[in-house]
Amino acid sequence: MGGYFSDIFNGSKSLLIGMGITFREFFKPIVTVQYPYQTIKMSARFRGHIELIADEEGKPKCVSCGMCERACPSGCITLGSVSVEIEVDGKMKKKKVLSKYDLDFTKCSLCGQCVENCNFGAIEFSKEYNLASSNKEDFHFNLLKRLEERNV
Ligand code: SF4
Ligand code: SF4
After folding, report:
1. Is 77 a pocket residue for ligand 1 (Cβ < 6 Å)?
2. Are 84 and 43 in contact (CB under 8 A)?
3. Which of 12, 26, 122, 131 is the most buried (most CB within 10 A)?
4. Which ligand does the CA of 72 lie closest to?
5. Average pLDDT value for residue range 100-114
6. Is the model more confident about 67 or about 95?
7. Is the CB of 120 under 6 A from ligand 1?
8. Could you tell me the distance, in angstroms and rounded to a whole number, from the CA of residue 110 to the centre of ligand 2?
């Protein structure tokens, strides 16, 4: 019989404690968002897939040195470049221009080696966290095209 009443007492006590927490939280500011209708701003240190950075003219800062491609332990990055002639101080000089920057995000571990090894500050981690697909191809990014689309 004693166990019966102590169960009722313990049950009521835990119910009141729970209701007390609910009541307290009811008056606190809301910290959740109505995903996917609302999205949140990611912290500065968040790592999404890498993205090319543009210069003042909207062109890629990347000079096609290939350091990021070589530094990537997972072989996610495929670069391409073309040689073009430009005029510098009245003389024609050859310059390498980025023609392709593909990222296979299915293999990326977000280790950061590519970003750390770029001496030109030409790539950064995006704040993209909203990626979901059952198709692997959706995680193969043409970063040059993405940069162009961002500049439109
Ligand atoms: S290391 Fe930087 S500059 Fe060199 S290819 Fe990669 S992104 Fe471009
Ligand atoms: S974060 Fe690491 S794994 Fe991902 S592309 Fe850069 S170097 Fe490769």
Report:
1. no
2. no
3. 122
4. 2
5. 97
6. 67
7. yes
8. 5
- Whether residue 1 has pLDDT greater than 80: no
The three-point CA angle 71-101-68 to 5° equals 15
User: Predicted confidence band at 86 (pLDDT cuts at 50, 70, 90)?
Assistant: confident
CA of residue 62 to ligand 1 center, whole Å: 5
Cβ-proximal residues to 77 (8 Å cutoff; 6+ apart), any chain: 68, 69, 101, 102, 103, 104, 114
Nearest alpha carbon, ligand 1 atom 3:
62
- Amino acid, res. 10: N
**The tokens of 93 are what?**
């000089």
- Please name which of 120, 124, 77, 121 lies closest in space to residue 101, comparing C-alpha atoms: 77
Which atom number of ligand 2 is nearest to the Cα of residue 107? 3
2, pLDDT greater than 80: no
- Name the one residue in this structure whose structure tokens are 């019989």: 1
